[in-house]
Specification:
Layout lengths: L7 E6 L7 H15 L3 E6 H4 L21 H11 L4 H12 L2 E7 L7 H10 L21 E7 L12 H20 L2 E2 L3 E3 L7 H34 L5 E5 L6 H11 L3 E3 L1 H12 L4 H21 L5 E5 L6 H16 L4 E7 L2 H8 L2 H5 L6 H10 L9 E4 L5 H14 L5
Parallel strand pairs: 1-2, 1-3, 3-4, 4-5, 4-6, 7-9, 7-10, 8-9, 10-11
Helix pairs in contact: 1-7, 8-15, 9-10, 12-14
Length: 417
């Protein structure tokens, strides 16, 4: 099964000292999350000198100059697009994020005031709540968030249930409002007691453990986010398109890959051969039949992509206008199915390519078997140039090795097999 295991993450940090345990936790977490394929943006509130308190003069175009009502001014200026630039920038970061991670030390059983001020300033009416006042159905629905809190050992000292219980209790107000009220799903919080009085080995181990827990939380959030997108939008499996000249191994490699990843496999000749048999190549009837077959198959593939990946092969060139248009049609199919288009380009040197095309099975399947024609194709045509393609030279590879290379590429893109 495929799932895209990457999300866009916003880390809101209220850690004042970069060299502290919390500062190292932030730095290492960002590095690990990026390596895991996530997109990470950081709002470092202390480094930004974030204005945690709102004043009347922050809103020059007041709705009421004689009485300052913060919520009313925030709603008005949000609608007008005139909130302070620093606030608008933070809201844009939230809009781009699937997951928000709050990192902070524990100050008197709560996050620092600057973090609470960030929430007060950024979660404005109209942006985070107010359009639908149904609890849990706010404008930010579909996102998730969790807190990572460092503490000095006092958090659970007076409670026999310990730190996790006290942490849930401490964050309940923030979990319920503003997170749940705005539609954000709170995930279980994480906490760590920095080993201030231990050696560097124990400190490094504690740092690694909390960063691993943060990465695991992000992975679980990615899985949940992807499952929600599947339920809402109907597709999350990729359309894998293998393009290349005749004889480079598209059908063989594609069929092996499809079996390995439980994908539907459609060779280009599956679409072309009915027209070849019915009308012969190059006739007006051939073009009409091919078009009807493609339209019917593409219509069904929208539904197939809800259940499994699709591997499609083609020989499409830059020099033929119809080929370029057809390539765009395939990309449009992926977009219409709300899924990913993953282009693969296979190649081989001419001598190896010429050796491969001369087989009885190719002739039986109405495929090119003439080396001179292939040579002319090399001279006159190049395959469609897609800068996003994974280019694979199959000259010295067996079909299973080529399939394995494509499978590794899919894993590198963040798909779980």
């Amino acid at each position: 099964m495929f799932r895209e295991l990457s999300v866009n993450i916003l880390i809101v940090s209220a850690i004042a000292e970069p060299q502290s345990f919390g500062g190292q936790m932030l730095e290492k977490s960002v590095r690990r999350l990026n390596l895991a394929g996530h997109g990470v943006t950081v709002s470092d509130l202390y480094a930004q000198r974030f204005p945690a308190v709102a004043y009347a003069n922050d809103f020059p175009d007041r709705t009421n100059t004689s009485y300052f009502a913060l919520e009313r001014e925030q709603a008005h200026h949000y609608r007008q697009g005139t909130l302070p630039p620093v606030i608008r920038a933070e809201q844009e970061k939230i809009n781009a994020a699937d997951l928000i991670i709050f990192m902070a030390p524990t100050y008197w059983s709560s996050p620092p005031a600057i973090m609470r001020g960030w929430v007060d300033q950024v979660f404005t009416p109209e942006f985070a709540y107010g359009k639908d006042r149904t609890f849990g159905n706010g404008p930010l629905k579909g996102k998730s968030a969790f807190f990572v809190m460092t503490h000095a050992g006092l958090l659970g000292a007076a409670d026999p249930l310990g730190v996790p219980h006290k942490l849930d209790e401490m964050l309940k107000a923030l979990h319920d409002r503003p997170l749940r009220y705005s539609g954000i799903t709170p995930l279980p919080p994480l906490s760590v007691q920095p080993p201030y009085y231990t050696n560097e080995i124990e400190r490094a181990a504690a740092l690694n453990n909390i960063c691993q827990a943060i990465e695991d939380h992000a992975t679980n959030a990615a899985l949940s986010s992807n499952a929600a997108k599947i339920e809402e939008n109907g597709a999350a499996y990729p359309l894998i398109h293998i393009n290349g000249r005749p004889g480079v191994g598209k059908k063989t490699v594609g069929s092996i890959l499809a079996k390995q990843i439980n994908a539907a496999f459609i060779d280009n000749h599956t679409l072309l051969n009915p027209a070849v048999k019915a009308c012969g190549r190059g006739t007006d009837g051939y073009t009409r039949v091919v078009r009807k077959v493609i339209e019917a198959v593409f219509e069904e593939l929208q539904y197939t992509l809800q259940e499994k990946p699709v591997v499609l092969t083609n020989c499409l060139t830059e020099q033929v206008a119809e080929h370029r248009l057809y390539y765009k049609e395939i990309q449009a199919l992926a977009k219409k199915a709300n899924t990913d288009f993953v282009p693969i380009q296979l190649s081989a040197d001419f001598n190896e390519n010429a050796r491969r095309i001369v087989t009885p099975s190719r002739a039986k399947a109405h495929k090119l078997t003439d080396a001179d024609t292939l040579k002319q194709l090399y001279k006159d045509f190049t395959v469609v140039n897609d800068p996003n393609s994974f280019a694979l030279d199959t000259t010295n590879l067996k079909a299973r090795q080529s399939a394995a290379a494509i499978k590794r590429h899919l894993k590198d893109k963040g798909y779980q097999l």
